[in-house]
Design goal:
The chain has one domain: 3-Layer(aba) Sandwich (Rossmann fold). The protein has eight helices and six strands. It is α/β, with parallel strands linked by helices and 180 residues long. Helices cover 49% and strands 16% of the residues.
Length: 180
């Protein structure tokens, strides 16, 4: 899975990373990238972080790499949003976009890519240890299977009324969270 992260959006949506950004913009970026490198070691996901440099950046798009994390800075005159959209369009693998920017979320959804709000990803990112559900002993996945087995054995009545099914977008987000 390839995570595309709107860097400044995540920093500014997060209480943790915002404290570093108050010291300096560079401190905020470094704190985020350091935490993402730990997350990458735990999960093995490919991660690309995109930052805006459209006001004071160089004339060309800049690329960097730290701890296995690809870092992209947009060129002067280009926003990170435009760069993220371009990455979504050139999608070659399963991709998840982390942003709270409504425009990018809608763009990603129209292209068949799942987008996760920054605060929700931050919770997963800052967990002390990130492990897949199947690796947790007695974890939520085991309890869910037990509950489903009990429901199959219990005779029920046919329920009336509107279905309680989540929207397609919400189901896609839940599916991605299981993989994170």
């Amino acid at each position: 899975m390839h995570l595309i992260i709107d860097g400044y959006n995540l920093i500014r949506q997060s209480g943790t990373f915002r404290r570093f950004e108050k010291i300096s913009l560079e401190e905020g970026r470094n704190a985020l990238i350091h935490r993402l490198s730990i997350y990458k070691k735990q999960t093995g996901h490919r991660i690309t972080v995109v930052f805006d440099a459209w006001e004071s950046g160089s004339l060309t798009e800049e690329r960097d790499r730290y701890g296995g994390i690809d870092i992209l800075y947009s060129r002067r005159g280009q926003t990170a949003d435009e760069l993220i959209k371009r990455l979504i369009q050139s999608r070659r693998e399963e991709m998840v976009v982390v942003t709270s920017d409504r425009d990018i979320v809608d763009f990603a959804f129209r292209r068949g890519t799942t987008a996760i709000p920054s605060p929700e990803f931050e919770i997963r990112l800052l967990e002390p240890e990130t492990r897949p559900a199947y690796a947790q002993e007695g974890g939520a996945s085991d309890r869910d299977e037990e509950k489903q087995d009990r429901e199959k054995m219990t005779p029920g009545t046919k329920k009336k009324g509107p279905s309680r099914r989540l929207s397609k977008k919400q189901r896609a987000i839940l599916s991605v969270f299981r993989k994170l």
